[in-house]
Amino acid sequence: MSDSGLRAKYVRRFHILDFAGDGYVDRSDVEARAQRLLDGMAEPAETPRAAAVREGAVAFWLGLAKLAGVQDSDRLDQEAFVGALLRARELGTIGDLVGPSVEAHVALVDSDGDGSVSLAEFLRSQSASGMAEADSRQAFEQLDRNGDGRLDVEEWQRAVVDFYTSDSEDQAGALIMDARA
After folding, report:
1. Which of 131, 151, 166, 174 is most buried (CB neighbours < 10 A)?
2. Residues 6 or more apart whose Cβ sits within 8 Å of residue 147
3. Residue 1's pLDDT is what?
4. What are the sequence ranges of the domains in the chain?
């Protein structure tokens, strides 16, 4: 597996998460990205789903900060961010790092509460994340590993973990993780 391929993906992710555009990622950047998703999905701030999305974002930040050896109130430059993700990959803890956020994201997107995400629900969420419809359709087809026309949290989780652990650019995880909102 190419370390340079992973680094390139992590650098792109850093720039997506650097919401303030100041060359650092901190908790406020991660929270702002979560809020942008909530706003794009028109989710009221006081709902349990909105709270779960915010909590998932904070859990990601806290895990990343711990891996980087910094405090919650600190910030990460690009190299520290990339290093923390490489460390999580080496430790096999990427799933733990992204799990709460992915679970909350899927629950948010599952607007009818049936436990899975339809194509229509997915297209709406990806549009809110800035992804073109054609790319969203392609990502949905790749994410839907069992071909049932629906996405469950395990399929979505697998795609996100694959993004962070595989140097391949030709995968659904890369499509959804590189979307800018």
Report:
1. 151
2. none
3. 46
4. 3-171
